[in-house]
Model the fold of this input.
Amino acid sequence: MKKKYSIGIDIGGTNTKFGIVNSKGKILIQSRILTNESDTIHDFIDLLFEKLTPMIRKIAPISQFNGIGIGAPNGNYYTGNIEHAANLKWKGIIPFAYMVAEKFNLQTKLTNDANAAAMGEMAYGCAKGMKHFITITLGTGVGSGIVIDGRIVLGHDGFAGELGHVVIRQGGRLHPGTGIRGSLESYASATGVSETAKELLHQNPKTKSLLRVYLRKGTINSQIVYDCALKGDKIAKEVFKMTGQILGEALANFIMFSSPEAIILFGGLTKAGDLLMNPTKKAMEENLIQVFKNKTTLMFSQMKEADAAILGASALV
Amino acid sequence: MKKKYSIGIDIGGTNTKFGIVNSKGKILIQSRILTNESDTIHDFIDLLFEKLTPMIRKIAPISQFNGIGIGAPNGNYYTGNIEHAANLKWKGIIPFAYMVAEKFNLQTKLTNDANAAAMGEMAYGCAKGMKHFITITLGTGVGSGIVIDGRIVLGHDGFAGELGHVVIRQGGRLHPGTGIRGSLESYASATGVSETAKELLHQNPKTKSLLRVYLRKGTINSQIVYDCALKGDKIAKEVFKMTGQILGEALANFIMFSSPEAIILFGGLTKAGDLLMNPTKKAMEENLIQVFKNKTTLMFSQMKEADAAILGASALV
Done:
């Protein structure tokens, strides 16, 4: 008999979300814990177990569960390890899938969070039925999941698909986490948008802007830039134009690599809608050679981000 | 009974090379014709047939042949067409594989020339046994073949893997063929090397260089730059340093996409050996985030270029 339920767990820098998914891709029940609340990895897994056990009991006997799928930063599908994740408290190489499997006595698969989201899009989202697509998460950082011939690209070591770290402005903005200059993540992330706003304000000291009061208070963030852009603020609008320009150039390069049917954007920055979409699409098309022009659909994900990650993780098993 | 022989055809802008390959990957007999000598595509296929027929007779009865594999610029594996190839005389969309199959009465597969070379490396060259690698041809242009999970990456439309056209210097050198600025091919090709030499000579009018006499005569090419670099010419050496820097940055971006075991360089520019290899490797490693450092082997192909293409094409069938 085909088992009916899977557990999906999405580990983020702040929250860990988890849910029970049925075979039709519906999340029947979900909850969350704070990721860095637990001091040790053992405490964290104990807490997960404590929270999930009553949820499992509520849905069905454990024998009807396929297993557990996990999306985690720097998660490696081949090894089941979380390796040197910069945003997590637990350092080094953690055999996370193995530890969870032991604790729950269920088969467990793990991959990185961006790949899990791509799997969610493929199984239940706007990439349903597609064999070639790329998802780009524009959040605090920039993540990516690449699908070719219907399969997630993992590379020889399981770490493929770090498109946030490609260099798009040689000698450009320094990424404090990697020490590399001009990477996509330095520009096309929430942090990047704030930085661009600060730069433009400094470079144009005589241009009036609603953003200046936030600059003085030190509270500029991508949401504020968006709000100001909606109010017609010139500099705020220019921030999204520049961000889209750089993102679009990067997407053109990705298209010339794997020629995907679609690129699906999600994450906080996509709330900017057309302010981001229009310049991105324009720059993307301008940087493509003829054979690729007007072939790849650029779209925003229609799934809730948390759902995509839980569903994608659950689709691993 | 397993058939013993395959025919490989490599169509280039200047020469079309073809050979008969046995099941061990040995080219038993080969020849060539000029690609643009024939006025029509029909004349060209007739000429191929005329040249290949006696070669086939010499080796074995036609019943012992698997078929014909073809590598061609802008060749599309899915359709068997050559589509809008800039370097060929025959314009538009040509159903080349179909026409060859009709003429020879043998099953025929076609892919682009760079993918054929990658298949040659995978079947018989230094990528033997590898499941994840990228080949980059540094010739008149820059071509690429990408292998992921042991398969050539074709993309949704069969045109994936145009890494020569990724933009690596935003707003940089204009590519006359594509109209795009700053693409890899504008720098890391034979043409790019000549251009870089001319630029450096102009930018440093007071620096003595053996290259100046060729500049005056209008005969600078990548071979001359190489010869001068070997003689210790400062500007010529700088040309390869700059070329390697740009190439290395691009390779780092490719690694963060598909995390290959190896990148294999071939084509005319690789004759420059360490003059090119050292700065390329340095720039590549410098632009990788930690998780990818010192994992991907950068190497020169050990196959003769023509052999790789014929063998790769033959491996299609």
Q: What stands out?
A: Chain B has a mean pLDDT of 94. Residues 209 and 235 of chain B are 6 Å apart (CA to CA). Chain B touches chain A through 45 residues (CB under 8 Å). Residues 5-123+306-314 of chain B form a domain with the Nucleotidyltransferase; domain 5 fold (CATH 3.30.420.40).
